[in-house]
């Protein structure tokens, strides 16, 4: 029987309907900056109507194209990274799992539901915020002796911490030596490819997750990829089952992965836009960190900033475990101007 406590929803960005009801502003009048999704995503080509009428072809070339794109030996297509997260506990041996205190919220519940003890960690920049139960994940220190697995989001969402491939593989080797696994979520790495370890995912003890939703802006397609060694690939392939990625989604993602010219242009554009957003926010906040797809502002006034911007029809994501606000990228010049004006107005309200 389902334990209803396990059905509790983890809060996420993109919940614009909730904001519209709460503030009484029509949905179409909002600027949604609550996710880190590219607001100018891949222009999906026309899709053959037949793709809607037949079962998805799991044996097409999508996975081979993805493996080549990521520089990996193999790739498993899944219905978004979320589907892979739910499968991870079934393919890993029981043991303590390290999950960031400030990171993507689905990992800890997935492992806890499966009976894995979960230890939370912070990176050195947030060491002042940890409670007694959290450990500091520091490349200069060994991992806790009783830790079996580690989940690393690189670059981290929302705190923007980033880890070099050398640091990542140091932890991987340390865990593999004790029969454990490093799970690296690279959902936001497409615009920061120098951080990726996808080309090393054939190793035992390493699982890499990639997303189509962020850089490509195709969040609605619900497609992600698992890059792993043959043993893990076989196990997750069995758990995934058939037809998990729809035919139309396969067409869209295939086109996006093959469009190298669009990817190069978009990577450059996002780097510039990410810096522009950070520069704008720095006028109002002393502590701004950013990736090409989002900025993170840490501060005790997070609730007031979210509420103040919402009253101007701008929705951002607030975090409470370490107080702060994540800002996604505005889609156009009008949205940039509205954000600038709203920030100025809210700052005056807070300081008055």
Q: Architecture of the largest domain, according to CATH?
A: 3-Layer(aba) Sandwich
Identify low-pLDDT runs.
1-7
What's the mean pLDDT score? 94
The amount of helix comes to 25-40%
User: Termini distance?
Assistant: 54 Å
Structural class: alpha/beta
Number of domains: 2
- Biggest sheet, in brief? 8 strands, mixed
> What is the CA-atom radius of gyration, in angstroms?
20 Å
Question: What gross morphology would you assign?
Answer: globular
Tell me the fraction of residues in β-strands, as a range. 15-25%
Order of helices and strands: HEHEHEHEEEHEEEHHHEEHEEEH
Task: Enumerate how many helices there are, as a single number.
Answer: 10
**Number of E-state strands:** 14
Find the CATH superfamily of the largest domain: Type I PLP-dependent aspartate aminotransferase-like (Major domain)
For this structure, the CATH topology of the largest domain is: Aspartate Aminotransferase, domain 2
Biggest sheet: strand arrangement: 2-9-8-7-6-3-4-5
Name of the level-1 CATH class of the largest domain: Alpha Beta
List keywords for this structure.
352 residues; alpha/beta; Aspartate Aminotransferase, domain 1; Aspartate Aminotransferase, domain 2; 2 domains; 8-stranded mixed beta sheet; 4-stranded antiparallel beta sheet; globular
């Amino acid at each position: 029987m389902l334990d209803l406590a396990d059905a509790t929803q983890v809060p996420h960005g993109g919940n614009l309907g909730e904001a519209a009801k709460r503030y009484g502003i029509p949905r179409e009048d909002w600027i949604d900056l609550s996710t880190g999704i590219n607001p100018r995503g891949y222009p999906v080509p026309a899709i053959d109507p037949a793709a809607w009428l037949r079962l998805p072809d799991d044996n097409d070339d999508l996975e081979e194209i993805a493996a080549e794109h990521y520089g990996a030996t193999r790739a498993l297509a899944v219905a978004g990274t979320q589907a892979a997260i739910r499968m991870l506990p079934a393919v890993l041996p029981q043991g303590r799992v390290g999950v960031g205190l400030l990171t993507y919220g689905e990992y800890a519940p997935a492992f806890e539901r499966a009976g894995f003890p979960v230890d939370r960690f912070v990176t050195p920049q947030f060491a002042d915020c940890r409670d007694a139960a959290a450990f500091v994940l520091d490349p200069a220190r060994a991992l806790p002796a009783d830790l079996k697995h580690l989940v690393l989001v690189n670059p981290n969402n929302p705190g923007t911490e980033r880890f070099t491939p050398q640091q990542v593989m140091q932890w991987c080797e340390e865990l593999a030596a004790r029969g454990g696994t490093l799970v690296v979520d690279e959902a936001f790495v497409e615009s920061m490819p120098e951080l990726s370890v996808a080309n090393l995912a054939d190793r035992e003890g390493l699982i890499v997750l990639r997303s189509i939703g962020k850089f490509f802006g195709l969040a609605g397609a619900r497609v992600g990829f698992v890059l792993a060694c043959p043993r893990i690939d076989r196990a997750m392939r069995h758990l995934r089952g058939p037809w998990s990625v729809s035919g139309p989604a396969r067409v869209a993602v295939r086109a996006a992965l093959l469009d190298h010219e669009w990817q190069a242009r978009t990577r450059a554009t996002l780097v510039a836009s990410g810096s522009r957003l950070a520069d704008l926010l720095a006028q109002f906040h002393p502590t701004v960190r950013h990736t090409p797809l989002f900025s993170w502002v840490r501060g005790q006034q997070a609730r007031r900033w979210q509420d103040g911007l919402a009253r101007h029809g701008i929705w951002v994501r607030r975090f409470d475990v370490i107080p702060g606000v994540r800002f996604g990228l505005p889609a156009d010049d009008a949205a940039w101007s509205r954000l600038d004006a709203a920030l100025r107005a809210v700052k005056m309200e807070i300081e008055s």
